[in-house]
Amino acid sequence: LVTLLDDNSLHLWTLKQHGGASELREEHHFTLKGPPGSPPSATQITAVLPHSSREVLYLGTESGNIFVVELPSLRVLEDRTITSEAVLQRVPEDYCNRRSCELVEALREHPKNPDHILIGYSRGLIVLWDLHNSRVTHHFLGSQQLENLYWQRDGSKFISCHYDGSYTQWPVSSDNRQPEPLENRVPYGHSEPTAEFDDPSAMVVLAEEELVVIDLKTAGWPAVHPPYLASLHCSAITCSHHVSNIPLKLWERIISAGSKQNIHYSNMSLSFSFQVLVMELNDEDAEHIVDHAEADLLQDQEGYRWKGHEKLKTRDGPVRFEAGFQPFVLVQCQPPAVVTSLALHSEWKLVAFGTSHGFGLFDHQQKRLVFVKCTLHPSDQLALEGPLSRVKSLKKSLRQSFRRIRRSRVSSRKRRGGSGNASEVQEANAKFDQDTLQEMELAPVQRKIEARSAEDSFTGFVRTLYFADTFLRDSSRHCPSLWAGTNGGTVYAFCLRVPPAERRMDEPVRAEQAKEIQLMHRAPVVGILVLDGRSTPLPEPLEVAHDLSKSPDMQGSHQLLVVSEEQLKVFTLPKVSSKLKLKLTALEGCRVRKMTVANFGSCKTDDYSENDLAVLTNLGDVQIISLPFLKLQIRYPCIRKEDVSGIASCVFTKYGQGFYLISPSEFERFSLSTKWLVEPRCVVD
């Protein structure tokens, strides 16, 4: 196997059998180098052709030259280089004067004659090159930018694909070198054993952003519906969530309804630009009215005025939905700010939502709002300005900060008696701007834990929501509860009264605030978790009912774990007294970005497993921390610290694996568990 990397290096790999599986092993690597003083484009590889003799590689470049490399040594055979000048000697002069060869776009070996290769240049020129005699035997003058070439199997014709989506068929044996129209299907003889390949049923087209399969057996050549519902390359992935232990019957229903619609929603509760949609799975198409409710998070408090955009208007009348997840109720937040957190409890039929102004609880079975809680601080005006005003305010604040610091630097230089000409001052200012930006970027990583002011912006921003059945009022009775954590280090806990199933539609769900915790350093709350009497996280809703999890221990005392950006803290319940804490920022100079509890099973026996906390930091490393004692077990470097989008997109699974984006539409998968390794276990014959 030969691979070409982004840095223009070639790598030669071989397949080896090891431990009952095939492994790729790198044998050689090589970088094509041009003569001294030549530009990088002279050797920038644009096309690779492995010859059927397995002795050489042909490398097309941006300069139009084709280099020949020996295998397996990866040594350049300079005397066999195919230069663009040699090619142009056999091309009509008017074509040569009009356009150059430019870069080599495609290289294809003749399927019947290994001494002939087809060379395609980006501006449309195509030549058939005789390797034995080093000359052009045929040339084909195209008028469109070339993308690719493909031989017909008998070598009598080839197809050229072009930038505008067109393709052209060219005869090779005839003297006529002009393109002829492509027939719907070219008839072949059936004398060869492989003649069935000459009657194709489908054509696969790799476009820039999707894979298209065309049905050649049906009139009109319709596209075949792919097994997925939308190409991942059509748009960037902005949100992802991993779901474990899906009941088999539910999964079969999802697959069945996904095959019937073009767009589907993978969550039952979705949040947008300031709206929450609650959805249910329906196997059939349906037309119904989507009920809607409004949640005023400011609760008509005086002194607050929203300066952002207006809310979206809901559609009146029934709406038709295809099979799959269909919305049946919509909650409109007021002010219409972005929904920042969401939690759904499918067993209690409740959904909680949070914004930069507060949070609320909605009963989607009775379709009524249970309560709202405003979390705004009186001085937090930025949260009321909307996203565009917020960016302007931030830029203005940064400019003012730069000016203040620059003035202080200049005045201090004058006091020291320093002087310099204008160019020196300009250079110093430029260096100062660069240094200041670096200081601003590094400062949060290097600083120790320090108390933040309650007047900092966005302290009311709701970062996390969590449902738990635990002991909140006293140690003898447990009850449903809702927990919320904010950007200002505040944790709110509400006791919930959910009526039993037989009276669920007759009695309202009630909520009462029971606790409020203020972290001393006011660091943003990243996660909230309740551990049962065995120090095991509480199961997800309906997991116990579907035999996907053990029942929680409700006999021993429960504990509350609060994870902020800077530290982990364990509290006893129901008193909420501090028991243990681990300061990450003070000791390691890092901040928590993502957290989850993962079950780590033994790779040697199925009888042992343990639950630990997996924490991803802004430095890109993953730390495994024991529960409930908060002891650091091990640290893995996982994502480059410069890859901010990768860190922000990371998703953990319940069994010690994770995913993060390495491009807007591609996931990298990793594993922290020795039991669940991420490796290709396969054999290549």
From TrEMBL:
Residues 191-222 form the Lethal giant larvae homologue domain. Keywords: Exocytosis, Repeat, WD repeat. GO terms for biological process: cortical actin cytoskeleton organization; establishment of spindle orientation; exocytosis; Golgi to plasma membrane transport; regulation of establishment or maintenance of cell polarity; regulation of Notch signaling pathway. Residues 405-430 are annotated as: Disordered. GO terms for cellular component: cortical actin cytoskeleton; plasma membrane. The keyword RNA-binding does not apply. Pfam families: LLGL (PF08366). InterPro entries: Lethal2_giant (IPR000664), LLGL2 (IPR013577), WD40/YVTN_repeat-like_dom_sf (IPR015943), WD40_repeat_dom_sf (IPR036322). Residues 405-417 have a biased composition (Basic residues). GO terms for molecular function: GTPase activator activity; myosin II binding. Belongs to the WD repeat L(2)GL family. This is Lethal(2) giant larvae protein 2.
